[in-house]
Amino acid sequence: MIVLTVTAALLAMLSAIAIGIHAGVARRPRRAGRLPF
Description:
The protein is an all-alpha fold. It has one domain (about 1-30). Helix content is about 70%, strand content about 0%. The protein has one helix and no strands. The longest helix has 26 residues, at about 1-25.
Protein backbone atom coordinates (compact mmCIF):
# COMPACT_ATOMS: atom_id res chain seq x y z
CA MET A 1 0.00 0.00 0.00
CA ILE A 2 1.98 2.98 -1.26
CA VAL A 3 -0.89 5.40 -0.62
CA LEU A 4 -0.93 4.64 3.11
CA THR A 5 2.81 5.19 3.34
CA VAL A 6 2.61 8.56 1.57
CA THR A 7 -0.33 9.65 3.71
CA ALA A 8 1.46 8.67 6.91
CA ALA A 9 4.58 10.56 5.82
CA LEU A 10 2.55 13.70 5.03
CA LEU A 11 0.76 13.55 8.37
CA ALA A 12 4.08 13.14 10.18
CA MET A 13 5.58 16.15 8.38
CA LEU A 14 2.51 18.30 9.04
CA SER A 15 2.48 17.38 12.72
CA ALA A 16 6.21 18.13 13.02
CA ILE A 17 5.72 21.53 11.35
CA ALA A 18 2.76 22.30 13.61
CA ILE A 19 4.78 21.40 16.72
CA GLY A 20 7.67 23.56 15.49
CA ILE A 21 5.40 26.56 14.92
CA HIS A 22 3.74 26.08 18.30
CA ALA A 23 7.13 25.87 20.03
CA GLY A 24 8.38 28.96 18.22
CA VAL A 25 5.32 30.99 19.22
CA ALA A 26 5.54 29.75 22.79
CA ARG A 27 9.20 30.76 23.01
CA ARG A 28 8.70 34.16 21.40
CA PRO A 29 5.18 35.48 22.07
CA ARG A 30 4.52 38.32 19.65
CA ARG A 31 1.79 39.96 21.72
CA ALA A 32 2.23 40.26 25.47
CA GLY A 33 -0.71 39.29 27.64
CA ARG A 34 -2.05 36.64 25.27
CA LEU A 35 -1.74 32.88 25.49
CA PRO A 36 1.03 31.54 23.21
CA PHE A 37 -1.12 29.25 21.07
